[in-house]
Amino acid sequence: MDTEDSLIIMLTLRLRGRMGRYHLVDLLGIGEGVIKDRLRELKESGLIQTSRSGSILTNDGVRELNKSLSGYGIVNIQEVDLTPVFGRKYNYCVMGGLVKWSSGISIIELRDIGVKNGGDAVLIMHVNCTSVDIPLTDLTIEKFSLELASRIKSTYPCGTYVIAVCGRTLYYSLRGLIEIAKAVSMVQLNHGLN
């Protein structure tokens, strides 16, 4: 898979299911020409199947998407409502768990990467065995929402760092999340932590 746009389109199809081109344009906030070109490339590669009712990932598409995300060290990407934490409703928030983490990673730098890549709000959490902590603070997600904390603990194993990014479009939320995961992967490569 060549472009981040293709990855984001595939991830959107996984999150939302079958979807038409115009709906993708509205949801992702990127141009129709870009969407049309990426869908054509994905179809030609056998990664999506298209019909009058929209596009959907093929089995090969699911495998390729999982391989790409695994390469960035991110798992279980899903949409999430972070209104209890941020005190305001963001239309598009996603979260994913990072497979590996190093003490050499700066949480503030990662937050800044998420914001530079389109995130309006970035939340980094650590799942420990009894709570979901917000590093660099004395806060836990449980103080904001027991339901959200329970969802996170049931999805991500103890010890996992979970990144959540909210943006003005689903594209920017996913892009911010992916760029943070890429940055963590680079730190691990540079420190020989793979």
Features of this protein?
alpha+beta, ATP-binding, GAD-like_sf, DUF4443 domain-containing protein, single chain, 7 strands, Arc Repressor Mutant, subunit A, nucleotide-binding, 5-stranded antiparallel sheet, Gyrase A, domain 2, two-stranded antiparallel sheet, 2 domains, 194 residues
Classified in CATH, the superfamily of the largest domain is GAD-like domain
Compute the number of helices.
8
Kindly provide the name of the CATH class of the largest domain: Alpha Beta
N→C terminal distance: 22 Å
Regions with little confidence, pLDDT below 50 for 5+ residues = none
Number of domains: 2
Radius of gyration: 17 Å
Order of SSEs: HHHEEHEHEHEEHEH
User: The biggest beta sheet, please?
Assistant: 5 strands, antiparallel
- Return the structural class: alpha+beta
Number of strands: 7
CATH architecture of the largest domain: 2-Layer Sandwich
InterPro entries: GAD-like_sf (IPR004115), WH-like_DNA-bd_sf (IPR036388), WH_DNA-bd_sf (IPR036390)
Organism: Caldivirga maquilingensis (strain ATCC 700844 / DSM 13496 / JCM 10307 / IC-167)
GO biological process, one term: translation
Keywords: ATP-binding, Ligase, Nucleotide-binding, Protein biosynthesis
